[in-house]
């Protein structure tokens, strides 16, 4: 995870394949939902795994349809089962998903009036689909004037705490239709970021400043502290097909979001430096969908004979060195 928002491959995926599409191709509610599942599941490639579509500009789950069309949910469950049998991984390894999974499972138990219904990989999709019906998506589109507004809406949901509330809010901040920015002074430093702040300010009296205020102070004093970061111009902004830019301000400095991420990642680095045997567990899950599309369609139709031994997922090792 990089301190510059455009160096984060997940953020670039969201910009390129979700929020920059015209509303005629992907509704705003579906843009928000597909952005959120990037975090709630975490594995790169999740949009293909839940849709069966290899083209990233078409691999969008339709939350509005799922809310009213059980056949669509059932078809999605078959797609998910197909990739699950092929040993594809849906969840990332760098975040804990238990609270999200539990909230989604409980939603589905209530929806189907089945208190013993087992958890399913599609529960999260159905849960967020419900937001298109219960007013949540309308509140996001109509009532969010700041990052804090988006955070408050998300964390009002069961199972969504500071981490998912803040990071799903900042991910949606790249949507030009939403009126808030990842450089808003509001932020929600997680345990890792707080640990690094304790290293930086060991004698600071607790309670005198909030964790979030310290993050903003680091951003505001970066010139004195870092003596220039020299961020490559490629990562200063993202230009859309119509010539407009995603960000009103060039990303040539540390922003609040990037500062919080940097503090968190230093604590991760420090922990792994002292526990190198755990490094392999921090690799980002990137699933290459190398299964024949025809086989998927046959599986959905009930005609596909599954091999005795399913092909194992390809594991891509992400370099730990900074590439930029």
Question: Would you kindly provide a written description of the structure presented here, covering whatever features stand out?
Answer:
With 324 residues, the chain is an all-alpha fold. The protein contains 15 helices and no strands. The protein has helices spanning 9-19, 28-40, 46-51, 63-66, 70-85, 98-111, 123-131, 136-143, 147-155, 162-172, 191-200, 211-220, 222-226, 256-274, 293-300. Helix 9 (147-155) crosses helix 10 and helix 11 (191-200) crosses helix 14. The chain is globular and about 65 Å long. The N and C termini lie close together (12 Å). 35% of the residues are buried. Mean pLDDT is 87; it is low at 308-324.
Describe the protein's topology.
Blueprint: H1 9-19, H2 28-40, H3 46-51, H4 63-66, H5 70-85, H6 98-111, H7 123-131, H8 136-143, H9 147-155, H10 162-172, H11 191-200, H12 211-220, H13 222-226, H14 256-274, H15 293-300
Helix pairs in contact: 1-2, 2-10, 6-7, 9-10, 11-14
Throw out a few tags for this protein.
mainly alpha; 324 residues; 15 helices; 47% helix
From the spread of the alpha carbons, the general shape counts as globular
Instruction: Give the number of helices.
Output: 15
- Major sheet: none
Through-space gap between termini: 12 Å
Strand content: under 5%
Computed structural class: mainly alpha
Poorly predicted runs are 308-324
Mean pLDDT: 87
Q: Give the SSE string.
A: HHHHHHHHHHHHHHH
Overall strand count: 0
Q: Output the radius of gyration.
A: 20 Å
The percent of residues in helical segments reads: 40-55%
């Amino acid at each position: 995870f990089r301190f510059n928002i455009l160096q984060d491959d997940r953020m670039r995926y969201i910009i390129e394949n979700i929020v920059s599409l015209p509303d005629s191709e992907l509704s705003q509610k579906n843009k928000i939902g597909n952005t959120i599942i990037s975090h709630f599941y975490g594995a790169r490639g999740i949009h293909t795994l839940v849709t069966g579509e290899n083209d990233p500009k078409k691999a969008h789950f339709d939350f509005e349809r799922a809310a009213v069309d059980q056949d669509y949910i059932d078809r999605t469950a078959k797609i998910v089962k197909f990739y699950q049998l092929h040993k594809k991984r849906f969840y990332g390894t760098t975040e804990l998903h238990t609270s999200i999974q539990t909230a989604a499972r409980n939603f589905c138990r209530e929806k189907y009036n089945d208190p013993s219904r087992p958890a399913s990989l599609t529960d999260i999709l159905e849960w967020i689909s419900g937001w298109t019906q219960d007013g949540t998506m309308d509140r996001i589109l109509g009532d969010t004037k700041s990052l804090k507004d988006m955070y408050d809406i998300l964390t009002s949901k069961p199972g969504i705490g500071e981490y998912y509330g803040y990071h799903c809010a900042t991910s949606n901040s790249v949507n030009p239709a939403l009126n808030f920015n990842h450089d808003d002074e509001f932020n929600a430093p997680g345990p890792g970021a707080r640990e690094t702040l304790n290293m930086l300010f060991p004698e600071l009296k607790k309670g005198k400043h909030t964790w979030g205020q310290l993050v903003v102070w680091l951003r505001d004093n970066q010139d004195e502290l870092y003596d220039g970061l020299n961020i490559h111009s490629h990562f200063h902004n993202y230009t859309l097909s119509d010539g407009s830019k995603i960000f009103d301000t060039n990303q040539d400095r540390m922003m609040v979001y990037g500062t919080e991420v940097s503090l968190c990642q230093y604590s991760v680095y420090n922990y792994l430096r002292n526990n190198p045997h755990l490094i392999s567990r921090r690799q980002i899950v990137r699933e290459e969908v190398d299964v024949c599309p025809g086989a998927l369609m046959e599986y959905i139709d009930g005609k596909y004979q599954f091999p005795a031994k399913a092909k194992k997922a390809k594991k891509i090792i992400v370099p730990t060195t900074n590439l930029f």
